[in-house]
Structures are given as C-alpha cells and as structure tokens.
Write a structure and sequence with these properties.
Strand order of the largest sheet: 2-1-3
Strand content: under 5%
CATH class of the domain at 24-173: Mainly Alpha
Number of strands: 3
CATH architecture of the domain at 24-173: Orthogonal Bundle
Number of helices: 4
Helix content: over 70%
Bound molecules: zinc ion
Shape: rod-shaped
C-alpha cells in the first residue's frame, strides 16, 4: 500500500466522489417513504368520506325500521278502536270513537310520510355513495400507480448505490484504516463531505478562511491537515 500523505488525499478524494453520491442517493431514498405515506393519507381521506356516507345510509335504514314498528303499532291501535266501534251503545260514544279513530289515522299518516321521506333520503345517499365509490376507485388507481412509480425510483436508486458501493470497496483498501475510520465518521456528520478543497483560503466545506500557514502545511504534504473550524480534511485542487 502506498501511504504517502499525498496518495491518501488522492484516494480520499476519489472515494468521496462515490461516497458523496451514495450519501445523496440514500437521502433521496429516505424521503420516498414519506412521500408514499402522504399519498396514502390523501387516499385514506377519500375513503373516510365514503365510510361516512355508508354510515349515513345505515342509520337511515335503522330509523326507517323504527318508523315501521311505530306504524305497525298505530295500525294495531286503529284496528282495536275499529273493533271497539261495534261494542258502543250510544251515538255520543260512537262519534267520540270515530273522531278518536280519525285522529289516530292522522298520526299514522304522519308516520307514513316519515317512511316515504326516509326512502327519498336513502335514494339520495345511495346515489352519493355510488359517485363516491367511483371517486375512491379512481383515486386508488392514481395512488397505486404513483406508489409503484416511487417504488421503481427507489429500486433504481438502490441499484445505483450497489454499483457505487462495489466501486468503493476497491478503493477503500488503499486508504490507511485509521484515516479511513476518521474519514467515515466525518462523512456521516458532514453530510457526505469529509474532504474538501481549499479555495484561496476558504474551506470548501464551511467557507471559513484558513490561516495562510495552514495552506502552506497542506502544500508541504507531510501530514493530513483538517479545517480548524469544521474538522474536514483539506486539500488543494492544483495539488492532486
Ligand atoms: Zn471548514
């Protein structure tokens, strides 16, 4: 293994071209599940609307059953009142019963009206449900196709990372293990940029000005120099 400082810098710059891309790709991949979750949330919201309509349809049926029971009991009362008519002795009793029956019939027709209105309400809700089902189906199609698109993108990114990883594994053995360890640690905390060029005096990572003496030290190639502000390894582009 060549271990000159200059060689180590060259290797690090070389490996970081791969690592920088790997870092960016992994970051991009990390964003994808959030994107899918967001689309899923939007789709679930459409389904929630449909569920609400279905609940409404169910409750219309439940209250109609109650009206029908009420109607039945009113009919029973009317039938009993009609039967009572035959038992009555006087005209007065008879006409009182008749007017009671009329009033019962009026009550009954109100319940019948409620039942009819309940059918109308059910028709309206069912029409909305059909519309909403079509909407949900359409949105599901869009959601699933976008989801697949994103998953395909992730696969492409992942394949690229694998290629870069394998290229990286050919360079890594040429870097001193101790230096590689430091480099990798920095890579993690410095968003994929562990070794940066000095431009003029400015650190290419944090843009702070290095001391002229620091630049001279880099030129001397006797040791690896790190930025005193951000700790990244420094090199001179002209020097490669
Ligand atoms: Zn810096």
């Amino acid at each position: 293994m060549e271990t000159s400082v200059h060689d180590q810098i060259k290797r690090m710059v070389e490996i970081q071209k791969l690592d920088g891309e790997i870092y960016d790709l992994r970051k991009e991949m990390g964003e994808k599940p959030k994107l899918i979750d967001k689309l899923k949330g939007e789709f679930e919201a459409t389904k929630a609307k449909l569920n609400g309509l279905e609940e409404k349809a169910k409750s219309i049926v439940v209250s109609r059953k109650e009206f029908e029971l009420e109607l039945q009991s009113k009919e029973d009362v009317i039938a009993k009142a009609n039967a009572d008519l035959n038992q009555l002795k006087t005209n007065k009793e008879y006409s009182a019963k008749i007017s009671e029956i009329e009033s019962l019939k009026a009550d009954k027709s109100q319940v019948e009206e409620k039942i009819l209105r309940s059918y109308d309400a059910a028709d309206a809700v069912n029409a909305d449900i059909e519309k909403e089902k079509a909407e949900v189906a359409e949105r599901e199609k869009v959601y699933l196709s976008k989801k697949k698109e994103i998953e395909d993108e992730v696969r492409v990114l992942d394949d690229r990372v694998k290629v870069l990883d394998s290229q990286r594994s050919e360079i890594a053995p040429h870097i001193d293990p101790q230096i590689l360890k430091q480099y990798e640690k920095l890579l993690e905390v410095k968003e994929g940029r562990a070794i940066v060029p000095v431009n003029g005096l400015a650190c290419g990572g944090c843009y702070m000005n290095a001391m002229p003496q620091t630049v001279n030290q880099i030129k001397m190639r006797q040791e690896l120099i790190r930025c005193e502000y951000c700790a990244r390894f420094l090199y001179l582009e002209d020097d490669l």
